[in-house]
Amino acid sequence: MTTTPGSAEQLRAIIRTQTEIVSGDLDPETIMQLIAQRAQELTRASSGVIELAEGEEMVYAVTSGEATPYLGTRLRKRTSLSGRSVIEGRVLRSDDTATDERVDAEACLRVHAASMICVPLSHQGETVGVLKVYAPEAHHFDAGDVETLELLSELIAAQLSHANLFEAESRQSRHDALTGLSNRRAFEERLPVELARASRNGRPLALCLLDLDGFKGVNDRLGHPAGDEVLRAVARILDESRVADDCFRIGGDEFAVLMPNTSREEAIVAAERIAEKVLGAALGEGGIGVSFGIASGDDRDSDSLLAAADQELLAAKDRLYGRP
Predict the structure, then answer these.
(1) CA atoms of 175 and 68, how far apart (whole Å)
(2) What's the pLDDT tens digit per position in 121-176?
(3) Count of the separate structural domains present in the chain
């Protein structure tokens, strides 16, 4: 869909979106996805995002376009343009993020956001998030695009008042409550996106599965609260690593790390560093180590890549316990 900013066609597109929402009996998540996609299309942006405020952070709760792989990304509220938009309760636009002191420059560089608009979302008199679009080139947006986003944000506000779209279970459906990492559902959604991106760009992709050694013993000796603290500590170590935005807790004491633009050899080095940090942290009174399995994404689909990494992980466990 291509439209001219501020055009009658844009207005008709917004009305069609409203009609689609009202007549389509859509669930809240689908509505939010639709609006993020429309925001991207109508402003000719590369990405559409709905961010929610959670404490001192902003969270990518809904994504479209080039932002799709960054679902669950967290930004500091006070150092991001979206966070400032929530705090100030007004529309903020950055025409060139490379020179704008209001933005999180590192995050903008990571997601290829050279220009952006953030429009606050209100619910029951409180600003709860933003509708955001961004583009990889500076000076992409104009006043007509701001007006378009404001109209779409009103659609979201109307839905908020009828459907409680921001209930905790909805916004946390892709996050692990214990560790704060993305969960298995988010991993299963992200993996094919990254494989497709790697194939399209001709770049490497590595998948690392991590499993904690000695975790059951911690639960047995020290109790489940101690085990929970071990999982949170491992999540913090992952969060401090260079792959923080690509880490997932996929079940029990198993974690997955997606490594875009990373060869198998580079992934092994990164995994070994993580394992060393976990061992050095002396978690669970010193009883916790890490085994890992790594597979590269060359000519593989999601199932075969996951199976290859899992096979390597099982082989590492066999070596650890001396199994033939």
Answers:
(1) 16
(2) 887 778 888 999 999 999 999 998 998 888 888 877 766 655 555 554 455 577 88
(3) 2
Catalytic residue flag (residue 104): no
- The pLDDT confidence band at residue 82, using thresholds 50, 70 and 90, is very high
Residue 292's CATH number: 3.30.70.270
Catalytic residue, from 246, 253, 303, 310: name it.
Answer: 253
Q: Hey, which bits of the chain come out as E strands? A: 47-54, 57-65, 74-76, 92-94, 115-123, 126-135, 205-213, 247-251, 254-260, 289-296
CA atoms within 13 A on the CB side of 255: 31
Q: 195 and 230 share a domain?
A: yes
Q: What is the CATH number of the domain that holds 48?
A: 3.30.450.40
Distance from first CA to last CA of the chain, Å, rounded?
Answer: 58
**Look-up: residue for tokens 């050279």?**
114
pLDDT at 248 over 80: yes
Residue-number span of the structural domain to which 35 is assigned: 8-171
- Average the pLDDT over 184-211 and give the result: 87
